[in-house]
Write the C-alpha cells for this entry.
Amino acid sequence: MEEKKNILTYEGLKKYEDELHDLKVNRRQDVAQKIKEAREQGDLSENAEYDAAKDEQRDIEARIEELEKILKNAEVVVEDEVDLDKINIGCRVKIRDMEYKEDLEYKIVGSTEANSLKGKISNESPVGRALIGAKVGQIVNVETQAGTMQYKVLEIQRSEAV
C-alpha cells in the first residue's frame, strides 16, 4: 500500500525540519545527560529521575520517527506557482459566511499543517474540501453536522503567513 503524501507549504516543511534537527541535535543530548546523571545516583529500581528521563527519551524518539515519516512523504506546494484563478492548497482565501454575514480568512494547507487557531485549514476538512477549485464570486455549500453552510468566495491571494 502506497503511503499517503503529506502536502506541505514551504513554511510547514521548514518548521518540521527545524523541529527534527532540534530533537536530534539538542534534545537527544539533553535526555542522554539526564539518564547518565540519574544512573550515577545508584539504584534504578526506585529512581524517579531515571524513569522520567527514559519516558522523555521514548517520547523524543517517537516524535523523531513521526517527523521523519512526514518528511519522507512530503510533497511541497510551491506557493509562488499557485494558480490564483481558483482556490488550491497554498493560497489564502477570504470568504463570507452567508448566514452570519461574517468575513473569514483562511490559509488552505495539507492536513499535516492544519491549525484552525492560526487560520490554517486542511484541504481535507469539510470547508477546505468544498473550497478547493472554487473561484472568486462563487458560493460553495459545506455539509456540516449543524446543516449546510454557505460561503461566498471574496478573494484568493498568494499566501503570506496568516
